[in-house]
């Protein structure tokens, strides 16, 4: 490649111009290789890894078996969509189930099991269903399955992770075998997008046994061992003609990042996520593997709760936020990929992002001031981190060094990825979360910041925020709705018990034989929906 000695951004720009010209151009692999050589970072990287497409469009091929490795698993893994807790669960759920809608690459809801969503007021909805769908057990898909699937979220015995969202569903009823009526507690124009998320995938009417999955999805569940693996086999009765392409997917976790990379390079697995940015050159130097970046609204966040959190110690929270060196964290913990965050969860690319909110900067003087007001004294504070929360170990080490400069001792306690989400997340005064992107601002706020939400990580409660959340859902004036979402971002930024230094890009590593994989803003592995879209190039 004649331009491979150009520095960083100049090399990247040259590659992109060449790729847009005639002839064979450059594949995504070429652009990635150039990026690795030129150490292109941040905004440049975000556009390049997704901006270059293969010069040779291919027709999907049918057949073959792949192995896919994620980073996390535990005995709490579940095939119940209502209880899904991490992206390993979500991927399995999209293998075996469908939703009423699905989200495309622009996060626009498209019809799936539903043929149409109609409403005049965003309060009452008429949903018409497909008639050509059967479950894996051969039973036809009907309105009774939708009514049961949506209503079960509000049953305490279900222990749904989406309870706070599902409480909007005041009444869900069947109007014939292929029509469902939904009445909400208050208007919400985002309903079709909300129902596209994994928690609201459709199960059989009356389903209570999730030792295996009985869905309408592209694959049937041949085996499921929580914390070990699942085996998915092609659903020959799938309602989408020609899909899925693969015969079988074995899905499991390799928690150690180096071992995950080695497995890919050795050909033992065909697709992995996540890939640390530091590992990209190793992958690109292999003849048999490549990488793909998906810029997302996901983030790894510092979580402060209990005696260190916003309810009991707001000064400590502010001290830690000012102690986040965001540019350094992005550069060293995330390899320069992603975009800077501002301690609120709506990414800069989102249409409701509050661009006018002043950026909180790294300021040790302010951090020390608030730390003294917090009355922490000369004690060591445990900071729990794990590879399961992407980048959190590096973040913890950088924070530890900054803390030393203002007399704060952070004792990093690194815990295994295996079981992190069930045994450690939200169970320590100071730790980390890793939140996946969500399709709407309402859903992000409802799941993680509403006072009664099961995943309200810091235990923050704010009546004004809750009122704005409810009002914004039903606001049909776009300018007013944006203002409400902006006010909510300010409340989280100033008072919430989390620190968000940056928004992550998700990087997949995959065999060059694996085709059909494309970026998705919900996250890696095509927003967890890769299974029905990918195929093997023989």
TrEMBL record:
SUPFAM superfamilies: Periplasmic binding protein-like II. Coiled coil: none annotated. Residues 111-453 form the Solute-binding protein family domain. Gene3D superfamilies: Dipeptide-binding Protein, Domain 1 (3.90.76.10), Dipeptide-binding Protein, Domain 3 (3.10.105.10), Periplasmic binding protein-like II (3.40.190.10). InterPro entries: Peptide/Ni-bd, SBP_5, SBP_5_dom, TAT_signal. It comes from the Bacteria. This is ABC transporter substrate-binding protein. It comes from Billgrantia aerodenitrificans.
């Amino acid at each position: 490649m004649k331009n491979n000695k150009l520095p960083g951004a100049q090399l990247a720009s040259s590659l992109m111009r060449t790729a847009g010209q005639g002839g064979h151009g450059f594949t995504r692999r070429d652009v990635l290789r150039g990026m690795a050589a030129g150490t292109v970072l941040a905004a440049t990287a975000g556009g390049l890894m997704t901006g270059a497409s293969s010069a040779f469009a291919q027709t999907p091929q049918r057949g073959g078996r792949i192995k896919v490795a994620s980073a996390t698993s535990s005995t709490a893994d579940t095939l119940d969509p209502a209880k899904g807790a991490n992206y390993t669960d979500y991927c399995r759920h999209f293998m075996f189930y469908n939703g009423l809608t699905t989200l495309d690459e622009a996060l626009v809801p498209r019809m799936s099991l539903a043929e149409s969503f109609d409403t005049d007021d965003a309060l009452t909805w008429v949903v018409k269903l497909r008639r050509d769908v059967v479950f894996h057990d051969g039973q036809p898909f009907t309105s009774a399955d939708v009514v049961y699937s949506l209503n079960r979220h509000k049953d305490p015995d279900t222990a749904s992770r989406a309870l706070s969202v599902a409480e909007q569903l005041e009444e869900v009823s069947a109007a014939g075998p292929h029509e469902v009526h939904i009445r909400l507690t208050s208007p919400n124009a985002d309903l079709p997008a909300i129902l596209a998320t994994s928690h609201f995938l459709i199960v059989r009417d009356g389903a209570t046994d999730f030792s295996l999955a009985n869905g309408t999805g592209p694959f049937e569940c041949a085996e499921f061992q929580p914390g070990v693996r699942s085996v998915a086999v092609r659903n020959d009765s799938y309602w989408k003609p020609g899909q899925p392409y693969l015969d079988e997917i074995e899905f499991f976790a390799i928690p150690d990042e180096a071992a995950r990379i080695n497995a890919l390079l050795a050909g033992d697995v065909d697709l992995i996520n996540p890939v640390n940015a530091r590992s990209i050159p190793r992958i690109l130097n292999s003849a048999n593997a490549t990488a793909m970046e998906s810029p997302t609204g996901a983030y790894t966040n510092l979580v402060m709760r209990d005696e260190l959190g916003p309810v009991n110690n707001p000064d400590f929270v502010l001290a830690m936020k000012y102690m986040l060196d965001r540019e350094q964290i992005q550069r060293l913990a995330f390899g320069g990929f992603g975009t800077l965050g501002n301690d609120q969860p709506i990414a800069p690319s989102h249409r409701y992002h509050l661009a006018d909110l002043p950026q909180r900067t790294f300021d040790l003087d302010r951090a020390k001031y608030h730390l003294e007001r917090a009355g922490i004294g000369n004690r060591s504070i445990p900071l729990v981190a794990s590879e399961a929360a992407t980048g959190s170990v590096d973040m913890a080490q950088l924070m530890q060094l900054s803390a030393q400069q203002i007399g704060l001792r952070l004792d990093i306690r690194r815990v295994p990825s295996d079981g992190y989400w069930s045994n450690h997340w939200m169970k320590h005064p100071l730790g980390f979360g890793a939140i996946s992107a969500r399709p709407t601002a309402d859903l992000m706020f409802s799941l993680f910041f509403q006072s009664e939400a099961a995943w309200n990580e810091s235990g923050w409660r704010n009546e004004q925020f809750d009122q704005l959340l409810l009002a914004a859902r039903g606001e049909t004036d776009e300018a007013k709705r944006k203002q409400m979402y902006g006010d909510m971002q300010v409340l989280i930024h100033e008072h919430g018990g989390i620190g968000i230094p940056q928004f992550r890009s998700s990087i997949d590593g995959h065999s060059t034989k694996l085709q059909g994989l494309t970026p998705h803003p919900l996250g890696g592995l095509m927003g967890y929906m890769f299974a029905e879209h990918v195929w093997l190039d023989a």
